[in-house]
Amino acid sequence: MSSTAHVSPDDIRKGFSRAMSDMYRDEVPLYGALLELVAETNRHVLDSDPGLAQQLQRTGERQRLDMERHGAIRVGTAAELATLRRLFAVMGMQPVGYYDLTPAGVPVHSTAFRAVHESALQTSPFRVFTSLLRLELIENPELRAFAETALAKRSIFTPRALALIEHAEQHGGLDAAQADEFIRQALETFRWHHTATVTGAQYRQLSDQHRLIADVVAFKGPHINHLTPRTLDIDQVQAAMPGKGITPKAVIEGPPRRRCPILLRQTSFKALDEPIAFTDAHGSHSARFGEIEQRGVALTPKGRALYDQLLNAARDELGAFPNEANAGRYTQLMAQHFQAFPDEHGQMREQGLAYFRYFATGQGLAARGQADRPRTLEALLRAGHVAIEPLVYEDFLPVSAAGIFQSNLGDTAQSHYAANSNRAEFEQALGCTTIDELQLYAQTQQRSIDACTQALL
Ligand code: OOG
Ligand code: NI
């Protein structure tokens, strides 16, 4: 068996991402509508902005754009999270970043499973935002015990999925037939269930504590709750959504609209109310929604600090959680505060605010071997022998994620938790540490500089 060629984890991820998207489109038709709208908008943007088309061609993002998406799931126990880590590892996905959403009233902490190397991201940039419920935040001891018992009874992975994970770990990979079966079996974990594992009354009790708690505890598994395609112009899609029968949330999360996009902008439409059979009665539950994202350049620690400072200043001045009523003022405040953030790639690079990829230009390659050619990176850039392109942000933003969660939980019940952020506990549950995303961006940037040096020797 081990003599058969292994399928690359990147190809398994690519296949899984496609299978997941097909499953979700079958189950949630509005996701299909959103995919079409995003594809149409992206085509239009690429046709009307040749400069952007060229930039995305050079970085490879244009080639990966149509298959680019992220999903999100929520689990209930350390064991579930640890097994998910092993499942995602089979597909070359590792836990990157730690996000604590408790300060925003959402009783979870999270990581994003994704590929980490630019060449792997190029094959498939699929990411899964994965949250672990913090059961210790349930105040009522009986309810907490009930939730723990319900979670302890369930098994969210099929026996074949577990066997194939083990096989991949022991043999260093899966062959083609095993990879196909793995994709099918792994998909089962993320499927929607029309039946709950609890009574209607138990569901209500959990839900009264927090809707998220009911969403995790009352079901057989961590259904995928959204899949998010990447658009090149989120304002255009947001404006076009109502025409397609989709009502977006009032405010786009993340930075304001800019010429040079930074980090991540996101918007979503509310979760659908879906019929559920409880063990003793019929009712409904809403969990699944649609979201779109627009990705911009990754920021350095200095750039991120400036982003956080400006975001906080705008929110402080708004004096309330952004909502339908204050959306206009929020947009205005954001635009105003973010004037302090340079909106030109050259300036962002010079001020050390963002990460870039460096490319040897035709001019640079033509000058190879010439005695008087420039030597330093700065001189090469000035001479046009090297050009920069923004390094795309591959991760998430905690304040935005909290906004996405809230819009789907109904903005009504805002919980307040005094609990501290607990990265160590999360990593203990996960079974490893989370990777620092900033280090990944710095490494990709450095590899591109090294490649330029090589090419222009
Ligand atoms: C995850 C919400 C966060 C994002 O894109 O920031 C998220 C969830 O609702 O489970 O997906
Ligand atoms: Ni999302």
From TrEMBL:
Protein keywords: Dioxygenase, Iron, Oxidoreductase
Transferase found in the keyword field: no
GO molecular function: dioxygenase activity
InterPro entries: HGLS, YdcJ_bac-like
EC class of the enzyme, as a word: oxidoreductase
Entry cofactors: Fe(2+)
Gene3D superfamilies attached to this UniProt entry: Uncharacterised protein PF07063, DUF1338
EC id: 1.13.11.93
Family the entry assigns: Belongs to the 2-oxoadipate dioxygenase/decarboxylase family.
Protein name as it appears in the record: 2-oxoadipate dioxygenase/decarboxylase
